[in-house]
């Protein structure tokens, strides 16, 4: 039963993880690519859409929440096969050696993926390199071993599930709980001790653990009243009140943005065809303003409700730059150099009427932590690609 749950859940984790990677548009520019040496592993990449606008919020919410919820199931599955993990002799033949190698990749891979993923969503940056790269390659190693293992064991799992009624098992009390019959893999002890828990109790305990983790995690992406229950979400603390009181990934102070950098001397440079255009913030505010209701969603799984943004359409800025049919735009922040201080957006992201250089949010000027004096907001775009503290846009045909 635990294996069946993982057989459904793990492919969902893998697919949503791959789609999350695709959402960064890594094949568009080296600036967007956190795994530049991926080679053929990027075969599936495609132009990331802007419809529906909540796509990334749903995708990453499912990925992170499902990963956390599956932890008790994974631990129970590993507990159920502990004898297999430590059997002696480790290798008896070439075939057995290959099976053991796949098992090492399977167990090592799944532990690595779950541990690095949970560390990342809890903001424990203890990785010996880029989280994106480690998690991406670890996922491919694990899924290869997972496919091999499924091919080897799917028949046995199907026979086991058909051998007894699930309802009968869950109704069996402790007095009538008996050991499994001997199996060819040697997982059943030769002289098992008396049971201290029914199979119903084991399944219920694991299910209760998963349900508890769902309750204290899912609210960070679902929002509403459940947001207050997301106790395991570091970014889900009470942000206070007011128009700018919603979650923020990194504060201005944390990345080195000072009031002096965004003071009266700040200018927006718009490059394209011909002489660059330079604007003050007051000049930008004097232009026709457009509005869009969009959330912010982050790779750690947290997201905001829809916020009411207003500012200039990226498509209008592209026209001002003399590139009305722009195929991409390089967005640069005044943030000191580091990851995601420069990103490239696709043509479909530029020309979506909801894609803005935002100057205001919820009827108020942006706060410094939310990107004052100007930030990018694009539908279905990962939060880190909605660049804050923008000072230069370079549109390209």
From TrEMBL:
Q: Any idea which UniProt keywords this protein has?
A: Membrane, Transmembrane, Transmembrane helix
Question: Do you know which CDD domains this protein is assigned to?
Answer: SO_family_Moco
Q: Transmembrane segments in this chain: where?
A: 58-82, 103-125, 137-155, 202-222
Which domain of life does this protein belong to? Bacteria
Which InterPro entries does the entry link to? OxRdtase_Mopterin-bd_dom, OxRdtase_Mopterin-bd_sf
Q: Which residues form the Oxidoreductase molybdopterin-binding domain?
A: 263-396
Q: What is this protein called?
A: Oxidoreductase molybdopterin-binding domain-containing protein
**SUPFAM superfamilies per the UniProt record, alphabetical:** Oxidoreductase molybdopterin-binding domain
Source organism: Streptomyces yokosukanensis
């Amino acid at each position: 039963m635990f294996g069946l749950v993982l057989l459904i859940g793990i492919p969902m984790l893998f697919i949503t993880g791959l789609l999350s990677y695709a959402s960064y548009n890594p094949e568009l520019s080296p600036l967007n690519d956190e795994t530049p040496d991926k080679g053929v592993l990027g075969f599936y990449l495609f132009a990331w859409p802007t419809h529906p606008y909540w796509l990334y919020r749903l995708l990453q919410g499912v990925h992170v929440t499902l990963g956390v919820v599956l932890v008790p199931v994974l631990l129970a599955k590993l507990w159920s096969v502990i004898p297999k993990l430590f059997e002696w002799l480790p290798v008896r033949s070439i075939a057995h050696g290959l099976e053991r190698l796949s098992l090492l990749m399977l167990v090592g891979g799944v532990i690595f993926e779950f541990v690095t993923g949970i560390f990342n969503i809890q903001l424990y940056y203890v990785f010996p390199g880029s989280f994106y790269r480690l998690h991406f390659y670890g996922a491919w190693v694990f899924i290869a071993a997972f496919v091999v293992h499924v091919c080897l064991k799917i028949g046995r799992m199907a026979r086991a599930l058909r051998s007894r009624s699930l309802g009968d098992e869950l109704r069996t009390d402790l007095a009538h709980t008996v050991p499994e019959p001997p199996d060819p893999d040697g997982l059943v002890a030769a002289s098992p001790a008396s049971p201290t828990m029914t199979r119903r109790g084991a399944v219920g305990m694991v299910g209760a653990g998963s349900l508890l983790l769902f309750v204290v995690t899912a609210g960070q992406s679902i929002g509403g009243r459940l947001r207050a229950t997301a106790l395991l979400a570091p970014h889900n603390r009470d942000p206070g009140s007011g128009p700018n009181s919603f979650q923020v990934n990194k504060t201005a102070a944390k990345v080195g943005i000072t009031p002096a950098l965004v003071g009266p001397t700040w200018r927006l440079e718009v490059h394209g065809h011909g002489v660059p255009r330079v604007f003050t913030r007051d000049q930008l505010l004097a232009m026709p303003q457009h509005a869009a209701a969009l959330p912010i969603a982050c790779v750690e799984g947290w997201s905001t409700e829809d916020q009411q943004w207003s500012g200039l359409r990226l498509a209008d800025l592209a026209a001002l730059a003399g590139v009305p049919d722009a195929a991409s735009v390089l967005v640069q922040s005044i943030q000191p150099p580091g990851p995601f201080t420069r990103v490239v957006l696709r043509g479909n992201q530029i020309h979506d009427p909801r894609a803005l250089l935002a100057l205001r949010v919820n009827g108020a000027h942006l706060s410094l932590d939310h990107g004052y004096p100007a930030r990018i907001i694009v539908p279905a775009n990962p939060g880190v690609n909605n660049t804050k503290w923008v000072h230069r846009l370079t549109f390209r045909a």
